Amino acid sequence: MSDSSSSSAHRLPDYLRNTYSWAYLNHRTVPWLDQPAVVSAILWGNASRLMDAAVREFAPGQRVLQAAAVYGDFSARLARRLGDGGQLTVVDVAPIQIANTRRKLEPWPQARAQVADLTEPMGVSFDAVCCFFLLHEVPTYARHRIVTNLLEAVEPGGRIVFVDYHKPRWWHPMGPAMALVFRYLEPFANSLLAEEISTMVPQTADFEWRKETFFGGLYQKVVGIRRS
Question: What mean pLDDT is predicted for residues 146-150?
């Protein structure tokens, strides 16, 4: 795993510093929020199910880009799935998150983590890309840039997997609670719920899409296969 952090000079985005410092940039809260039990509670007991749903979309031996660090053991699950013949690259704009991810990936030498801004082109392509609960945490302008860059990083015939929040069914018992969460803790989430990932940017036209929802529609998995 690379120790390089030459990209650490990237300036942290304003939306990250202003909205999510407590969650992702604080040395005291990061270890606590990274606990699997906390991740499970945040996702109403669905964390393991959603992680498994994402991971099984990838195959041993693939070169996979993970867009942004993920709390819990998601990166470890993905590295294990890819196996010794695969390669996992985790990219995040926050050095503290990359340091934490490197610690968790120490048992997997085929995995590496590096600091980079996903709103900028990757400049390299992969067999597959995974984006797990990132899109709801960025404003629309940044979300569109990120999705564009991730799509362009998928090689022909490769796939991209998004797992994120989705507009729940009208009868969902957690609907009122999630409305409060989206209003006060996740201010960019509602703009994601108003869009379809499969038509979000022009580059989506190069992919074949399928979508699956979970837990009464509160979560979605959207998979795109790039046409050869």
Answer: 98
